[in-house]
Amino acid sequence: MKIIIVGGVAGGASAAARLRRLDEKAEITLYERGEFISFANCGLPYHIGGTIPERESLLVQTAEGMNSRFNVNVKPLHEVLSINKESKTVKVKNIKHGEIKEDSYDYLILSPGASPLVPPIPGIDNEKIYTLRNIPDMDKILKRLDTGVKDAVVVGGGFIGVEMAENLKERGMNVSLIEMQEQVLTFLDPDLAAHAHHELRSGGIELYLSNGVKAFENKGEKIDLVLSDGDKLTADIVILAIGVRAETHLASEAGLELGETKSIKVNEKMMTSDSSIYAVGDAIEITNFVTNKPGIIPLAGPANRQARIAVNNICGIESTYKNTQGTGIVKVFDMACASTGVNSQTLKKEGIPFKTLTIHGGSHAGYYPEAYIIHLKLIYSPEGKILGAQACGYDGVDKRMDVLATAIRHGANVTDLIDYELSYAPPFGSAKDPVNMAGFVANNDLTGFAPLVNIENLDKHLKDGAILIDVRTPEEVECGKIKNARHIELETLRDKLEDIPKNSEIIVYCKVGVRGYIAQRILMQNGFDRVLNLSGGYDTYSVFKTPEQLTKPCANTKIADDHQTHSKNRIPVKDEKTTLKIDACGMQCPGPLLQLKKGIDELETGEILEITASDSGFYMDVKAFAESTGMEILELTNGKKITAKIRVNKNKKSCVTAGGDQTTIVVHSGDFDKVMAALIIGNGALAMGKPVSLFFTFWGLNALRKNHSVHVKKTFIEKMFGFMMPRGSQKLVLSKMHMMGMGTWMIKDIMNKFNVENPESLLQSLIDGGGKLIACKMTMDLMGIKPEEIIDGVDEGGVATFLSDAEKGNITLFI
Ligand code: FAD
What we know:
By secondary structure, this protein is an alpha/beta fold. The protein folds into 6 domains: 2-113 and 246-314, 3-Layer(bba) Sandwich (FAD/NAD(P)-binding domain), CATH 3.50.50.60; 129-242, FAD/NAD(P)-binding domain (3-Layer(bba) Sandwich), CATH 3.50.50.60; 334-447, FAD/NAD(P)-binding domain; 452-551, 3-Layer(aba) Sandwich (Oxidized Rhodanese, domain 1), CATH 3.40.250; 562-647, TusA-like domain (Translation Initiation Factor IF3), CATH 3.30.110.40; 662-814, Hypothetical Protein Ychn, Chain: A (3-Layer(aba) Sandwich). It is built from 24 helices and 40 strands. A 5-stranded parallel beta sheet has the order 3-2-1-7-18. Strands 9-16-10-11-12 form a 5-stranded parallel beta sheet. The radius of gyration is 32 Å and the shape is elongated. The termini are far apart. The site of flavin-adenine dinucleotide has 34 residues, from helix 1, helix 2, strand 4, helix 5 and helix 8.
């Protein structure tokens, strides 16, 4: 049997190896147009970025290696020009020497792949525009990059575009990414793609969404890109990654049938319209496993499996390819974004009814360090058949996606997920894995035990008169809520049932959906029969409505929040060298510094403390801390997380404890932002061992008022003053951009997402940490503020108190 294979990379090389394993006597010739066979095209972006340092690592197999191991006649630099299916021959050109020869086959396997799309945009043939498909493409890009160019633009936000953007950034370049759609990674629904947008932006990529390139203009050493909205970008290099087109000219010119998608049509045996010719990989039209519709899914896994099926059938082993479901994953800096099956957009287009649910589960047990949130979306039919799943997160995304891909492959129903017994120990998962949780939630929805409403349908329900109830804590609500939501904290819900109309539809929500579910069950068991829980809660709402405000979830403390587990960030270790480990991930300045200070207070000289934080400012803070307190930094690593190993030295008197370095701050302003600045500096100074004194006067006094009203005797004018001024730190507003409360609301929301402590807790940690808080007695009298109205832990004092403190210090600030 004589077999010719066209294309020597994913599908072609797999086919050759399998053929030889099945038939030792077959005469196998593999023609490859390029210089290399069986190279790792999926690794190309990572060599460009430097993660895969050796170019040779990408060359998985050589022509010689393939020849000696598999006895395959490998012909690189040979292009198959045409097929004559009647005579079962191909015309082949030796690219090096130019000669053209004919070769014959019993069977022909086509795996010619796809080529990058290059649209006819004016100026497209500029030499500074590159595409990436193979090793020579990569070499050309590297040659340009090695000249030291700095500005790159990637056009296209698919897998390859996103990977290239990240890897160019890894090289220290300025990178912009242009995408014509409203989102990158269109295999994701928009609410999940928002996480990728955030990650790209945090990684320093300038994103231009809903924008295309109208023209390229040569500018000497540079190139200009004219965008459809009229913007202009200038770059040294442009990477065009807007998709691929199947290489079909050989097949179509030979008269082989093409499918609806204009790719090569094959049956389930991978046989083309000619029974002697098989085709696999990016060049073929697949049938979508979920929709049963024709499509194109150019991925390496399917190409390899299709090659195996084609070869089996050629060798007499009946095999059928069971369609492609499009399971894919991509790294976006520290995040993984993955999907399997179909997304909402596809189902809408196909007119297939579906439901969705979103959960925000932990990658592993919240009490075990380094747990991250996985945003998981499940798409299922109204009867419960799983149609698709998507996830984004910093850890454990691949594992969940593979479980769900398997579930889809076996036609699972969402309720089946409940019974999946998945591997669990705290470092790896949870006793109720996010996959199980998704099953519970879906089952509750489908059985009517706890029906869901998803975010896309929320407005419609509200328009139809549904009542929205927010069951989170007042602090969470303070930082943002859904418009027109009534706030009834979960813990008080049973007492307030009378206030909720029974004849209306009720929608409850919390942060991620767990407390919403409890509230829903309370209501349903108290005679409210139309109660829906907002799927994914406020976290999903805020991403959906205000994706740009999305922040990086990191804290295991945050994960613990809604899953009622205890977050433990202090782990005494047995390791001789390290006495105490502190996980301050997810805390924002000055949280990690305060944790560090507390930790050091617990240790003796010579003991070692290790602290990990995700607040990027901590890298500088910890150095300053050590310098001013005389502690010794043994190790300090920067990156996604900052880890510092510190040897405690309490003998060495630092300049701090030697006296004369008190920090004194006059808090004159009552503006939220200015008070925050004073409190952060005060806490920071305290953490660094400096005595701190904050002197609150005039409007600054309002920050010290209790948040609730206190019954005290006041004159009419004092009452008026009290009424007109903000009562307590919760009521302070921004000095600028307050915009009728909108600006203050937004900043508090952002602070909440970034885990920045609020003024109340900063005041409390100042008090707890031994900071001196002084309320100016004279202004208290002037403004009619009574001592009973001031929070505990504050002294009253006058100008002398302030001056004597200021004299002790070398820093005095007036805010
Ligand atoms: P290819 O692997 O492209 O091989 C086709 C070969 O055929 C080419 O080398 C071509 O030169 C040769 N050829 C074409 N016509 C002729 C002819 N007439 N005569 C002789 N030779 C010919 N997929 C994933 O699943 N995960 C990933 O992470 C991933 N990352 C990727 C990153 C990049 C940068 C690229 C380019 C692709 C990536 N892919 C990824 C896609 C994956 O590589 C393809 O789906 C897979 O290689 C397709 O295999 P194939 O055999 O159909 O085509």
